[in-house]
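As a warm-up, study this chain.
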Amino acid sequence: MMDIAINTPALLFPAITILFLAYSNRFLTIATRIREKHADFNKTHSPVAEKQIMSFRRRLRYIVAMEMFAVLGIISCTIAMGFIFYGLQNYGNIAFAISMLFIVLSLLASIIELFFSMKALNIELEDMEENH
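Now compare it with the structure written out below.
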């Protein structure tokens, strides 16, 4: 196993910050859409709005998973730096590998949420086509 320097885990910090910004924007956007759809659903009780509500619930789960994996990634990264700082190189390597795994899981959850987002947009497009 290759030994890593203390600054290697630190390289993930800027990437994680950008991920949090992107994930927060996704969360805020979907929260706004849910509020809009809630008002629409209360007025119309349309089947399209009902489909969107199910989609929102699924997407929210993935957004929360994305953020949790990213948080666990940064915690593991910080732990890796601590182990390396105290001379526990093997533990540092393991913690860094775990942090990379969490970041990959976060990105995979992001891709899955993106597909659900596309499906939700297709629901809207299909409704527009039917009513045209």
